[in-house]
Amino acid sequence: MNPTSAQAPPESPLATANAVMGKFRWTICALVFFATTINYLDRAVISLLKPYLETEFHWNAGDYANIEIAFKLAYAVGMVGAGRIIDKLGTKLGYALSTALWSVAAMGHALVSSTFGFGIARGFLGITEAGNFPAAIKTTAEWFPQRERALATGIFNSGSNVGAIVAPLTVPLIAETIGWKWAFLITGALGFVWLVLWMYFYETPAKHARLSKAEFDYINADIPVGLPEEGVTEEKPKASWGKLLTFRQTWAFVIGKFLTDPIWWFYLFWLPDFLGKQYGLKGTDIALPVAAVYILSSIGSVGGGYLPLGFIRRGMPAFQARKTAMLVIAFCVFPIVFAQWLGGLNMWLAVLVIGIAAAAHQAWSANIFTTVSDMFPKRAVGSVTGIGGMAGGLGGIALTALVQKRMFVHFESIGQIDKAYYIMFFICGAAYLLAWVLMFTLVPRMEPIKLDDE
After folding, report:
1. Whole-model pTM?
2. Would you tell me how many other CB atoms lie within 10 Å of the CB of residue 28?
3. Intervals of the chain under pLDDT 50
4. CB-based contacts of 117, cutoff 8 Å, min separation 6
5. Is there a smaller number of Cβ atoms within 10 Å at the N or the C end of the chain?
């Protein structure tokens, strides 16, 4: 017998469980990553087809803003019910239903023949795409212990960047070669490929045939003190919105999403327009700078998950680690206020600071989502995520309707569109610091929610 192996301490059941189920957990994370990739690919297509659609349908900045508002309004409305539906149907069926419906909506854009029709199509896409993040966050809460959730969230959330990277590399090429309608059809069809994989591979821990008690305990090993340990079945009633809205923790998440989600919408829907108007990029020329921004965003998403994990490994409590990481991230956004000035020196300097800001947003997103699963029982995670997602959608509508639509139309009409972007980049730089101050004034320390029936 090898003496070294004889003296080695036996592995704990939790360590063994981690070794056995680790690969499966990360396979699930990969599935959620690809769903998020497809989700953002489908919503990003229209921003890259904007030049083609402007020519065919004679749009101005106001028309495009109205279509963007239709998507955001529907997305916000969808969030009202998406989290509740996910909590009711469960992640497997709820995620599948949402993905199937938004894929149909994405492909349906190819049938549209008017500006009003695009508003309807975008509305259907928005209301169905609302299910992605409540389902993704709930899946992560089900399968990952608290200390791993920010990293898992960062990884799957980076799918939003990959979707935005794939879009400029493929959509203009498809439009140039076989027409803009095929761009909607091809990208929309990808959701059905994912759907087959999801239904084959996924099951919740509560219903997983191979999940032992030790493995289940590993997933729930570090539930915060004060939160109930949810067992193999989830038969307790779902928390009502009215009840959830009485908690400061809910409002902290709502405020954070309301102030920062619109910034990401701005990058997603207006970045190609910015590059075209400011630097004269057209068609496939826009692919590389847009892809560069979202490559940086992917790095930020995963890095944002690692940052609090590093603090936790140094002995910092999870909530404090998350709070500290989010402050660091908020400061990383601020240099975007200099994007226009730097872009005057060289376009790639503007792309760089916008990319860093977009990366910081994704790092922020990985952490703000995880605050929900930190503080709420799993049966309420989908609903709280839905409430916050609705707030983010409403924030996006407010920014577009009150700032972007009026401001961009005005400055474009007088030939000074650069001033509109100066203002928008200043708003981007300030939003996260304001959100951090308000969020952690409401919830300065870890206060897990225990619902009345627990």
Report:
1. 0.70
2. 25
3. 1-21, 224-235
4. 111
5. N
